[in-house]
Amino acid sequence: MNNDVTWLTYFVLSVFVGIEVISKVSSTLHTPLMSGANAIHGVILLGAILVAGEADGFALVVALVAVVLAAVNMVGGFVVTDRMLQMFIRRPASRQARRPGKEV
Amino acid sequence: MPTWAEVVFLLCAVGFILALKGLSGPRTARTGNLVGAASAVVACVVPFFYADLDHVALILVAIALGTAVGAVGAQRVQMTQMPQMVALFNGVGGGAAALVALLELQHFAEAADLGLDVQVAYLVATAFTILVGAVSFSGSVVTFAKLQELMTSRPVVFPGLPVLFGGGFLAALVLAGMIVDEPATWAGIVLALVGLALGVLLVLPVGGADVPIVISLLNAFTGLTVAAGGYVLQNTVLLVAGTLVGASGTFLTLLMAGAMGRSVSNILFGALKGGSTLGSGEASDRPVRSASPEDVAILLGYAEKVIVVPGYGLAVAQSQHTLRELVEVLMARGTEVDYAIHPVAGRMPGHMNVLLAEAQVPYEQLKEMDDINGEFRQTDVVLVVGANDVVNPAARTTPSAPIYGMPILDVDEARQVVFLKRSMRPGFAGIENELLFEPQTTLLFGDAKDSLSRLLAAVKAL
Q: Are residues B86 and A65, on separate chains, in Cβ contact within 8 Å?
């Protein structure tokens, strides 16, 4: 198979997988899902690292800026998503904890 | 690239698929996010072991800097401001992708100068990444400014805008063509600048209420730029991760637009045709019935069934906890109380669920729109706290209204409606709410937190 056709194959299959895996999401989770997906594309950090590793002079400066930006995207994205989701998870425990007191 | 590195990248790609899968279910969401984070970290560590990287120390410093900024920003942000934070993170990701592509273009230009043949497909992907990455960056910055209210949240349109946008788009195509014909770094820089301008022009005409959908769309854009960047760098994990985000992001954008009864093209270009969310923003001086907290407390205290409709105003005033307390006191008095959550309550779909969860409101008290709309008819009092557009009957009755067709909570069917409002200024969509002037409606003016605490004290005193 031609190399470019291989890449096209990866692309097309990923499109279908991407749509399929989130097709049943409830509207409650739209925001965390968007935020999580946003964090995933922060993996461009990998690309920025590869480019910075072979750059020199002004190009190195530009590449390092790209590394910083990508790291902000990736780390910030996953942390903020986790903060959102913590609130969903904490719910059952806190409910049980509060219940008895409320009946008084 | 050694085989072990390719296998690790494959595992990371699978990790991203599992992460998205996990994120779409309530029970698995947090694990999914952690799986995604782990995959991303592993993917970024791999090149340090196989690639012959220069400047490792500088790169590590840059990563540490970005990590610190991202982590601190994400920890500090208020949950109410979370949508603009996501927009900002998305924007810097798009910016990073564009910069990476610019540097690759420089390599291609050098190769072409040496008389080497550069594949057309690489150049197309590079031009795409530069352009769309720049659009995503500047577009996200404008959405951030709109949501943070650094600028007006209403659509900004000026007469030459469509021409300017069309001209910019043509210029971008010409520049991309030039890059494909003969790679040159300067053309890439100009293309990035044109992309920045296009991003601003794209988001300016979008009305405040629609901005979250644009964030989701720009998120999908960034995903695609990362995918194209992955192709240029011949890196599978970048291609797969970017494509996954691009595809799921596009699908999610359509889902969100559907929840608001809008089409994506109407959201982006509606204001240019004059039909979108162009509102007045003016406060009305028509007569309304207002009441004191004590009056409202009596109304609530002797009601059998109360439904609370929380909106963004509640969150801005940081009064979720006071509201929860009020609801608990009412329930202790034997009143049946539910929260009615509109799918786009807050600033983003699902945002209100996050905000109320933060205030530890039990999950089963949160009713989604379709489940609760039939119950308003049997409801004595509806308490609308800081919400407006999502209960505006104009969405059903006035075809000329910007929000016409958006599914709303049928609050107008309840016996009594109490609005907690700061002023008579219209909601985010900038249109007047006829419900405010109806005979069954009572208004309690003031800051949501202040009003709720006074209401809480008054109900306790009953």
A: no
